[in-house]
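Course assignment 3, question 2. Fill in each field.
Student: A.L.
Task: Predict the tertiary structure for the chain below.
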Amino acid sequence: MKKIALIAAGVFFIACLTASAQTDQQQGMQMGMKNHGMMRGNMGGMDQGMMVGCAPMQRSMTMVNLLPEMDEQLSLSQDQSEQLIDLRSDFKKQQADFQAEMTKQGKKLQALVNESAPVDEVRDQMKAWADTRIDMHSAAYQTEQEMKALLTDEQNAKLEVIMEEHDDMMKKGMPKSRGGKRK
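Answer field:
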């Protein structure tokens, strides 16, 4: 019975990590587009559930993808714009490496589950995948901080207002939870 529960947990974990990695990749593609619909006041067809309910560090991923595209909203100088694009580009290279590593870790985990490996081995493999994901989100957070350091106080204040509006918009589009009501 314990092995069945472990296998079920492993399969569930793999499904979650695959969906999570796909969400990260899709968000990167969608959020990186110039003049994204959100910047015009709508979601531009983006899945509203993508940001809401995600890990707290997902906001850093969003920021890294959006900030270089906010040149008009934040009145960025040419130099600021170029530096932000370079930082995003550097992060995207790191992100691709992290995602490739997560894919490898996920395949190793699947193999362990398929082999009915001992619980400790499966747990260690789950931790290895999680550590890689943590590293990717930490890199996004660090990049976000570096990007914000390039902005003036006024630009950072405007950015925070834009992001709060974005967060509020995402919360309003959130589907009803099991026992709760829509806000």
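Instructor remarks: Residues 2-40+49-172 form one domain. The chain has one domain: 2-40+49-172.
Grade: pending
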